[in-house]
Amino acid sequence: MDPLHVAFQHCVSGTRPVSAREACFALAAANRRPPTARRPPLRDIAAIVATAEPQDCLDAAFAAAGRRPSDIRRAARGLSPNPPPFRDVDYFAALARWLGCGFDRGPGLRALARHQRLAVTTSDDGVVVRGYRGDKPVVAIVPSPAWLPRLGALVAAKPALADRITIIPPQALVEAMGEDGPVVCQGRLDPLHGVAERDLADRVLTPGQSVTLGATGAVLLLALMIEPVASLLVMVVAMTAILVGYAVSRAMALAPNEHGTPPRRRLKASELPEYSILIPLYKEDEGLKHLVAALTRLDYPPDKLDIQFLVEADDAITQGAVLREATELKCRLTIVPAGLPRTKPRALNVGLRQARGSIVTIFDAEDRPDPKQLRIAAETFAAASRELAAVQAHLTIDHLSDNWLTTMFAIEYACLFDHILPMVAARRRLLLLGGTSNHFRADALVEAGGWDPYNVTEDADLAVRLCRKGYRIAMIDSHTWEEAPVSVDAWLKQRSRWFKGFIQTWLVHNRQPLALLREAGPADTVVFHVFVLGALTAAIAHCAFLVQLVLLALGEAVLFGDSIWLGGLQTLAVIVGYGTSFILGVKSIRRRRSGAISPWAVAWFPVYWILMGIAVSIAIHDIVRKPHHWRKTTHGVAARPRRVAAHH
Questions:
Q1: Which regions span the lipid bilayer (predicted)?
Q2: 18, 50, 101, 604: which has the fewest Cβ within 10 Å?
Q3: Total Cβ atoms within 10 A of residue 87
Q4: 260: alpha, beta or left, given left = phi > 0 and alpha = psi -120 to 50?
Q5: pTM passes above 0.85
Q6: How far is residue 602's CA from residue 608's CA, in Å, rounded to a whole number?
Q7: Which parts of the chain sit beneath pLDDT 70?
Q8: DSSP summary character for residue 554
């Protein structure tokens, strides 16, 4: 494939911005043969790189384009290998020249949109807008990378098509369509002023942590070589302590919740505060209409809602879907500037920068919140002191009986959101937030610095930061219906991302462990370690236990030999861990009063926990190889009920 074409594809897809160095090497390769009508002129490659590069370097590099390929390579080596920001307007202008089509920066399409309802269709090929100028049809397109080879071949075979097609950048599309539907605005990304550099997950380990980890590993290896049984005993004691603490938290959740939900102060419609709803979307055109329908059912004054759909700059398909589906909502389509890391928390920070409400909440594309949820949260904040910074709604799976995996996921969510988190909240301890349907006081959220764009479980990290600043989090009696992964592949992507985020969060907040102890307090520090390390350790320990059972069945020596202490500790951890999990699972099923799940479904837990162990191993791999990569989970694929009854 033409190297210039490859560069264009990288640039428009946003998967990897193209640097000036790469652009010059592409020029060198293209300069080996005469330019053709279907290949961009050499000057157009300059549109791929932004002005963030030193201008004198760019001038020297592109001046070399008229000379031999070796001269261009030499000039390229003097440029930075780091890619500059993506400038879609320049890219699409160059693409239009390549195809021989017209190009519209926006004015022409906006003029058409004022006088007619334009037809917008989206597909994997991109976005196509159709209208009329007089009796002449007008076709404007935002082509996707996958469409470029076929589009180029089509225009080459039928040159007359070039006169009927206009290339438009995504921003021009959303600005034009925004005049009839959502208001479109360009997002801005500012630094997190409330977060110290030591609290960002932009690096996995600090130099001090690297030294500590290396020294600890060396000491453990040496100890295992000298005194293997004693060393294993110490390791098992530590692991058992974590597992027992994790199991105790579940045992405590079995007790009735004596404190219930926090009090509310009834508010008239005129007393309700302005409410900002942030909805981060990336390749989420499927099922968006269901979220929009749920938002239209919210029991909250429409003039006090500030709804923002946060969509990446290069995701024209989702932008088109928002413009098509959200015409009945008073909302904004906020374009998230291109850049790295491409994560949900980075998009949320863009939305927070422009949020107008005194309360901020987050919904995902697959969410169907209880219509009264915003009012319940607002009235809870109104009755509470400023110490209450956030409230979390219950997350509930609404297609729980699709297959055994969705059933396990539904039971797990019921255990967590109906028992464990309410127990933690009732004791006013550190509550790790879920990724959606959490509601914040805007001032507390800004004080905490918003979300860490590098952390893939930004919710858990933010909960710890709020705790360290003296705030607390409560649960409210409201539910959001969620979609569970329906395949093992999708489940592993999501769960390995969660586990990787737990590792990130634990490492970040233990960069200065004494500061964590001082700011969060001893009790919440213990809760933090038990919940984060417990989730990781339980998954690993379960797989290790199953391996030992297999070895015993085969008559092989067990890993820990004949040590009574090791066997006893392991048996204790297994009995307590399995017992509390099974009992809590059965109780959660009965509390939901759902005939779709049998209490015997908890017998699948050991199989489900094997997947947990696999997810932890993937997370460990990712934290080393690609710590900020967001494993995307596709939504809108489950056969969910159209209407969900209220939960009682």
A1: 219-248, 526-552, 564-585, 597-620
A2: 604
A3: 20
A4: left
A5: no
A6: 10
A7: 1-88, 114-124, 145-146, 149, 174-198, 257-260, 551-553, 555-570, 592-596, 634-648
A8: T
- Compute CA distances 75 → 25, 57, 285, 621, whole Å: 9, 8, 43, 37
In the DSSP assignment, the letter for residue 434 is P
311-352 pLDDT, tens digit each: 988 787 888 888 878 877 888 888 888 777 889 999 999 999
How far apart, in whole angstroms, are the C-alpha atoms of residue 513 and residue 635? Answer: 38
Closest alpha carbon to 501 in 201, 146, 196: 201
In this prediction, residue 12 carries a pLDDT of: 43
Concatenate the DSSP letters of all residues of 146-174 into one string: GGHHHHHHHHHH-GGGGGTEEE--HHHHH
Query: Which residues share a beta bridge with 360?
Result: 276, 440
The residues that bridge with 481 in the sheet, in sequence order, are 368, 396
Specify the residue for token string 């000491």.
219
Of 366, 363, 414, 361, nearest to 391 (Cα)?
A: 361
R_g (Cα) of the chain, nearest Å? 28
Could you tell me which of 189, 175, 161, 12 has the C-alpha nearest to residue 86? 12
What token pair was written down for 216? 């600890």
- At 374, the amino acid letter reads L
Instruction: State residue 416 phi and psi, 5-degree precision.
Output: -70, -55
Cis check: omega of the bond before 341, within 30 degrees of 0 = yes
Q: Which residue do the tokens 């020596």 mark?
A: 557
How does DSSP assign 345-372, residue by residue? Answer: HHHHHHHHHH---SEEEE--TT-EE-TT
- For residue 157 the two structure tokens come to 């075979």
Do 3 and 29 form a contact (C-beta atoms < 8 A)?
yes
CA–CA separation, 503 and 620 (whole Å): 8
Strand ordering across the sheet containing 136-143: 102-103, 165-167, 136-143, 126-133, 119-123
Answer for the pair 444, 390: CB distance below 8 angstroms, yes or no: yes
For 223, counting Cβ atoms within 10 Å of its Cβ (0-12 exposed, 13-18 middle, 19+ buried), the class is middle
Cβ partners under 8 Å of residue 630, min gap 6: 341, 342, 343, 344, 456, 497
Q: Name the nearest CA neighbour of 283 among 307, 258, 305, 312.
A: 312
- Alpha carbon distances (Å) from 34 to 38, 49, 72: 11, 23, 16
Q: Which pLDDT score is estimated for 581?
A: 85
How far is 49 from 503, CA to CA, in rounded Å? 36
Phi then psi for residue 342, to 5 deg, are: -90, 90
